[in-house]
Write a structure and sequence with these properties.
By secondary structure, this protein is α/β, with parallel strands linked by helices. Helix content is about 45%, strand content about 15%.
Length: about 350
Amino acid sequence: MTDLNKIARAMVAPGKGVLAIDETAPTATKRFDKLGIESTPESRRDYRMMLCLTPGAGDYVSGAILYDETIRQQAPDGRPVPEALNAAGIIPGIKVDTGAKPLAASPDETITEGLDGLRDRLKEYYEIGARFAKWRAVIKIGPHMPSRLCIETNAHALGRYAALAQEAGIVPIVEPEVLMDGDHDIDRCQQATEAVLRAVFQELASQNVQLEGMILKPNMTVPGMTCPEQATPGIVAARTLETLRRCVPAAVPGIAFLSGGMTGEEACRNLNEINKQPNLPWEVSYSFGRALQFPAMEVWAGKESNIAAAQAAFAHRARMTSLARQGKYAPEMEREAA
């Protein structure tokens, strides 16, 4: 547990957070197709390694969540990807769930699968070089949703995954995401998020997961994307921290927020306000995907000649997010950098 706690604390070290580049091949292909980029195992690797090997990336990125395809590949210089990441000061991680599937008896909701064979896969990933893992549960808000069935089955799966990860010497990122999709208000988001987090931590306790050796990756407490009344960063910060203080034990080393469809700037404004609040019982960090990756992908466009410009775009986004993680971000910094 000492080793797990050490890794968990490194993942949420001051000024740093986790880069999520664990999109499945079909998801990555959809994004590449929109930009006219050919999607192959090599091009997906080149894009992900371009981000991780950006000069100075290790100053802002503590770890990178990889997809199974990527963690088994070699970097362009021939080193195994985990070795290249470690050399850059970035802890290799791995997505281990196999995706959200329709939930039996509640087909409008989902259950995340991937527990079958997970013990053996975690052992292999550790040998390859992964030191943390991620499992994402997807919770929808809607009429009669989320149901108790959806909350409890996903919480149970998260608990089983986390226990197996720690058994393998791997820090689990526990990600129960209450989606931003919908027109619900911030009160409804808070109600659903609290119900989910309470169920998750009950399962973690029941399955003997050591809280000191895990990271929580939750959504912020925000209105639905199509809600007529959106919330200011100050309100998001207040409601998010109220939610977390009610549900998350102080023994958890860190909170690494997901961006959940927010732009990089939106995510930074909210994260900054949260980190400006005093006496937080956990390190409050980030584990962003698109909010960190874009616009680097658009700048790159699959062309080697654009790598330097794309890395500059990524470095800017990473630096802004790092400042927000420290409560030192201001929107005008975006214009100054531009």
